[in-house]
């Protein structure tokens, strides 16, 4: 197990380094740079020569030295300064991360609840029309654009019914609508995979055996089928993280939340390389960590996998 | 929910609202004071309360000379004062922190006498030393601190402190625009400590210490800025009817990027005032009984600026044809509202030195086609004209700050297909734009405008050493602009500005479209709304009527 963990951690470090290097190179290849974008502001009346001087002030000795310097900074936890605002990138991440963490974790939990309710209700219901209707809900959810859903929810619940304010309001009030907006599309793939996995488990021969022994439908579903169906669902749940990050960009913009999504959007607009680099590496790190977690959970949930891992 | 108003006002209330609306429109842009008492309401200003103001974008770098960006100006206009006050109605320069001033004959020496007893919010004195330190940076920049010079100061040489309340500025060439320059948003005065900070630190709001009626209370970066009234503020411009501290206790400036969330929050009573109401939302706001403030920006109009350096449009007749083939009225009628007047010159009709050129700016597609024929451009197979194997295809970037820029350009492109000209519209991706915008071959046309209530605005826009939107190599144009900028006599200066407007049109450098306003929406109970000369809100005299 220890060896397994070590090798997985080594792979994770490799993935992070690759993500860092790939985005570093790509960001260098983009036309223009943040210094040009920022200082070309005509109100500041700078000549191209002066802009070149500023660039020289920010730049390192050579591209390779720059890269080494930045990488070293990342290893020691110093992500440099945002060129756009002049604040340390760490500070900006520290401000934005809690906002997104609250939003994303609440949305993920809600998505799991929605998914479980849909999948269970679908497999438990005996009427085939109801089952069909429930199973088509995920397809509907995944085709709803988060942008449109967010605005619709605001229009109905905040502007018409006046149940939750979007401006001001407590932290909980501020979370309700964005969490719902983000949870709906995330719940779709989880619900779909869980429902399908449940069907597959039902088709296995051990189910009629338990039924013949007199187990109730609910007992079979809860104690035997669901437990076996959870593995593929866990894998998909780990993968929805990407959706969570992408969805938070849209959701945070619609709801005016100052989280990682908004930070990313602004950094991209201003081509603020240090911030973009930090966001990419952060996202990669979370991805790697969650997948590592899923892999570690597998043998715990399914004893049959213990041998394979060791 | 606080501050909510009923969705559909009862009949008497609606009457009151309508009357208030009329009253406010009448008083709109009032001379820096509170709007007159609204009919049907209690005209006595109410002290206290919090104004919730929704901004479209978060502020960027708050170094004062970069305050022109509206989200920056909306904050800095509340926390800083200026040497002089430009009356937004008359555009006259009036006393503020400077009680009086003398200017020598050729506008190379300006002497200012300062008001006594003015302090910055950190307790330090606003005296001649502090003012000198501010303008030395705005006029000359500071290489060591990486502080760039400001666009609104020309020909600055040095400052000279005569006594604690008197100082003189020296210029190496006449600088008649300087007096107005001391009133602009970027000329806000900050403490000596603030002005001696390096650029990166002056970018941050928490470091900006001014003498204005409000101070920073709290900031959540990219989300919210809370300002609180200064209790000891007692140096409003003398022409303001309201003196002493601000009426409001607090202002909450909340960044709300989504257009319809801003408007919905306003009409559902969650916010008191919003900036940037889109043209298509104006009616919604009015129908809900709210007030639209479409404030003029008094500068170079929203338009297309054609670059003679591009090989396809180096012929003045081709550029003229493009202008004749552009229907500005159709653009305004289709996309905008009465808040956006059709352009009648290069400058707004409220700009200093404006001359009416509406006779020249006609829509004449037949003549446009004839000019293009004469210039040797023949119709190609796909409907786009060709000459020497080259298609008449011109590049332009969507302009982020301009309202409905993409839609405007799409409509122009549609109009130009009738001329056999293809307008290639590119999205405003910051990196590509920063590089290609300076390349006339790739970007034949610039879409933009610039606001400032001084004759120098036209120089800012066109001079090859300023914004240089047409990437000018026209020596005559540069000379005319320099002459305008150095002309101390106002009537001769205005005549020069008129000559420049004619010249720019004759040379086909500009296709003026409309006079771009800043559009705000406010609840009917928000009174005393005022703006500086270029439409940045001034919350000093704003108060909330009891509902």
TrEMBL record, chain A:
Q: Which UniProt keywords apply?
A: Cell membrane, Membrane, Transmembrane, Transmembrane helix, Transport
- Supply the InterPro entries for this chain: MetI-like, MetI-like_sf
Topology with regard to the membrane? Multi-pass membrane protein
The protein's location, in the record's own words, is: Cell membrane
Q: Where are the transmembrane segments?
A: 12-30, 106-127, 133-154, 175-195, 275-298
Name a single GO biological process: transmembrane transport
| Protein's UniProt keywords contain Transcription regulation | no
Q: Which domain of life is it from?
A: Bacteria
GO cellular-component terms in the record? plasma membrane
Q: Where is the ABC transmembrane type-1 domain?
A: 97-298
Q: Name one Pfam family in it.
A: BPD_transp_1
Q: State the similarity comment.
A: Belongs to the binding-protein-dependent transport system permease family.
Name of the protein = Peptide ABC transporter permease
């Amino acid at each position: 197990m220890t060896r397994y963990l070590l090798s997985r951690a080594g792979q994770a470090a490799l993935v992070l380094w690759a993500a860092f290097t790939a985005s570093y190179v790509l960001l260098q290849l983009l036309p223009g740079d943040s210094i040009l974008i920022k200082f070309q502001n005509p109100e500041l009346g700078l000549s191209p020569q002066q802009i070149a001087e500023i660039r020289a002030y920010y730049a390192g000795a050579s591209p390779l030295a720059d890269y080494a310097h930045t990488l070293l900074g990342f290893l020691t936890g110093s992500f440099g300064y945002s060129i756009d605002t002049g604040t340390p990138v760490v500070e900006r991440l520290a401000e934005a991360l809690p906002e997104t963490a609250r939003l994303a974790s609440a949305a993920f939990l809600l998505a799991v609840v929605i998914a479980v309710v849909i999948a269970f209700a679908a497999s438990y219901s005996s009427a085939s029309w109801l089952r069909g209707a429930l199973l088509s809900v995920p397809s509907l959810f995944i085709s709803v654009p988060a942008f449109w859903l967010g605005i619709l929810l605001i229009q109905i619940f905040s502007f018409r019914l006046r149940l939750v304010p979007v401006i001001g309001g407590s932290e909980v009030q501020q979370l309700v609508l964005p969490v719902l907006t983000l949870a709906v599309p995330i719940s779709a793939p989880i619900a779909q995979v869980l429902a399908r996995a449940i069907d597959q488990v039902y088709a296995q021969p051990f189910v009629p055996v338990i039924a013949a022994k007199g187990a109730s439908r609910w007992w079979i579903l809860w104690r035997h089928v669901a437990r076996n169906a959870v593995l593929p669902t866990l894998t998909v749940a780990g993968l929805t993280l990407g959706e969570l990050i992408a969805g938070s960009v849209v959701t945070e913009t619609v709801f005016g939340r100052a989280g990682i999504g908004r930070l990313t959007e602004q950094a991209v607009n201003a081509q603020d390389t240090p911030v973009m680099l930090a966001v990419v590496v952060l996202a990669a790190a979370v991805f790697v960590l969650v997948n590592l977690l899923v892999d570690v959970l597998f043998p715990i949930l399914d004893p049959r996998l213990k041998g394979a891992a060791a | 929910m606080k501050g909510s108003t009923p969705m559909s006002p009862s009949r008497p209330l609606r009457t009151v609202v309508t009357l208030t609306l009329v009253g406010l429109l009448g008083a709109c842009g009032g001379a820096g004071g509170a709007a007159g008492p609204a009919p049907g309401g209690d005209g006595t200003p109410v002290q206290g309360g919090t104004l919730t103001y929704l901004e479209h974008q978060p502020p960027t770098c708050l170094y004062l000379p970069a305050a022109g960006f509206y989200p920056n100006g909306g904050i800095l206009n509340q926390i800083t004062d200026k040497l002089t006050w430009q009356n937004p109605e008359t555009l006259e320069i009036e006393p503020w922190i400077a009680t009086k001033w003398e200017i020598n004959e050729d506008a190379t020496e300006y002497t200012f006498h300062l008001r006594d007893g003015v302090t910055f919010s950190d307790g330090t004195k606003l005296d001649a030393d502090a003012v000198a330190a501010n303008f030395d940076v705005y006029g000359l920049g500071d290489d060591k601190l990486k502080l760039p010079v400001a666009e609104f100061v020309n020909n600055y040489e040095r400052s000279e402190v005569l006594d604690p309340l008197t100082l003189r500025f020296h210029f190496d060439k006449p600088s008649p625009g300087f007096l107005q320059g001391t009133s602009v948003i970027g000329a806000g005065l900050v403490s000596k400590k603030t002005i001696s900070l390096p650029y990166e630190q002056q970018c941050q709001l928490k470091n900006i210490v001014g003498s204005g009626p409000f101070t920073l209370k709290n900031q959540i970066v990219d989300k919210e800025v809370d300002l609180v009234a200064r209790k000891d503020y007692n140096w409003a411009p003398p022409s303001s009817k309201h003196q002493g501290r601000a009426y409001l206790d607090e202002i909450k400036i909340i960044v709300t990027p989504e257009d319809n969330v801003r408007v919905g929050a306003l009409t559902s009573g969650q916010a008191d005032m919003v900036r940037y109401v889109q043209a298509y939302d104006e009616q919604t706001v009015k129908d809900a009984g709210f007030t639209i403030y479409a404030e003029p920006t008094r500068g170079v109009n929203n338009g297309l600026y054609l670059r003679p350096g591009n090989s396809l449009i180096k012929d003045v007749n081709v550029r003229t044809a493009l202008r004749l083939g552009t229907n500005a009225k159709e653009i305004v009628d289709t996309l905008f509202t009465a808040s956006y007047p059709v352009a009648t010159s290069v400058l707004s009709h409220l700009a200093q030195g404006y001359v009416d050129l509406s006779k020249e700016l006609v829509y004449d597609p037949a003549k446009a086609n004839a000019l293009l024929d004469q210039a040797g451009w023949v119709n190609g197979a796909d409907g786009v004209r060709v000459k020497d194997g080259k298609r008449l295809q011109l590049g332009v970037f969507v302009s982020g700050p301009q309202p409905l820029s993409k839609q405007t350009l799409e409509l122009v492109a549609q109009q130009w297909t009738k001329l056999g000209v293809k307008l290639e519209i590119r999205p405003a991706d910051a990196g590509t734009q920063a590089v290609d915008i300076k390349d006339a071959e790739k970007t034949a046309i610039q879409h933009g405008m610039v606001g400032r209530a001084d004759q120098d605005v036209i120089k800012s826009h066109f001079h090859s050493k300023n914004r240089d939107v047409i990437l000018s190599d026209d020596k005559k144009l540069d000379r005319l602009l320099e002459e305008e900028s150095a002309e101390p006599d106002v009537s001769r200066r205005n005549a020069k500005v008129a000559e420049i407007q004619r010249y720019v049109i004759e040379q086909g450098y500009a296709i003026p479209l409309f006079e771009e306003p800043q559009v705000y929406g406010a609840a009917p109970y928000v009174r005393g709304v005022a703006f500086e000369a270029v439409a940045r809100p001034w919350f000093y005299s704003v108060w909330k009527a009891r509902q």
